[in-house]
Design a protein that fits this description.
The chain folds into two domains: 80 residues, Orthogonal Bundle (Fumarate Reductase Iron-sulfur Protein, Chain B, domain 2); 49 residues, no CATH class. The chain has nine helices and no strands. Helix 3 packs across helix 6. The protein is globular, with a radius of gyration of 17 Å. It is mostly helical. The protein binds iron/sulfur cluster (SF4) (2 copies). One iron/sulfur cluster binds next to helix 1 and helix 3. One iron/sulfur cluster (SF4) binds next to helix 1 and helix 3.
């Protein structure tokens, strides 16, 4: 588990806010702000970020911020490193543990129910196939 944002790109953040513009978590919540997360991380306010109720958990890992950043800061790398730090310190929301456990055991984040299958059919989507769990487990164990 990588709890370090590799390289020094995050130090080049000049707080322009381009990463906020199309961030879906910002659009949805109105308060989540990757620019401020970068600022707190750079200034060493990790005690505000590494906690169960930290705002970082609202990030969807969509990578839009990294595509928008003119400085190639890759804000999502910093947020993922912070999430990993939280996991290593045992401070994450209960739901994150449940989802991780589900991915580890079945390769999927949520249970495939008959209702899910019915809806997929309704939208013309194929049935979900079983995940190669052995391959996933091997990958996790290599980490
Ligand atoms: S991370 Fe990039 S886009 Fe976001 S505020 Fe810093 S420089 Fe601007
Ligand atoms: S990866 Fe997270 S911070 Fe970046 S745009 Fe997506 S939701 Fe926002």
């Amino acid at each position: 588990m990588n709890a370090v944002a590799e390289g020094f790109r995050h130090n080049y953040c000049y707080q322009c806010g381009a990463c906020v513009a199309d961030c879906p978590a910002n659009i949805y919540s109105g308060s989540f702000n990757p620019r401020l997360i970068l600022l707190k991380a750079i200034l060493g306010f990790e005690d505000e970020l590494i906690r169960t109720d930290s705002e970082i958990w609202d990030c969807t890992n969509c990578y839009t911020c990294s595509e928008r950043c003119p400085q190639d800061v890759r804000p999502i790398d910093v947020i993922i490193a912070l999430k990993n730090l939280c996991m290593l310190q045992g401070v994450s929301p209960e739901m994150v543990g449940k989802v991780s456990d589900s991915v580890y055991k079945s390769g999927i984040t949520t249970k495939i129910t008959s209702l899910v299958e019915k809806r997929r059919k309704m939208y013309g989507l194929e049935s979900l196939k079983e995940c190669p769990v052995d391959e996933l487990t091997a990958m996790f164990e290599d980490e």
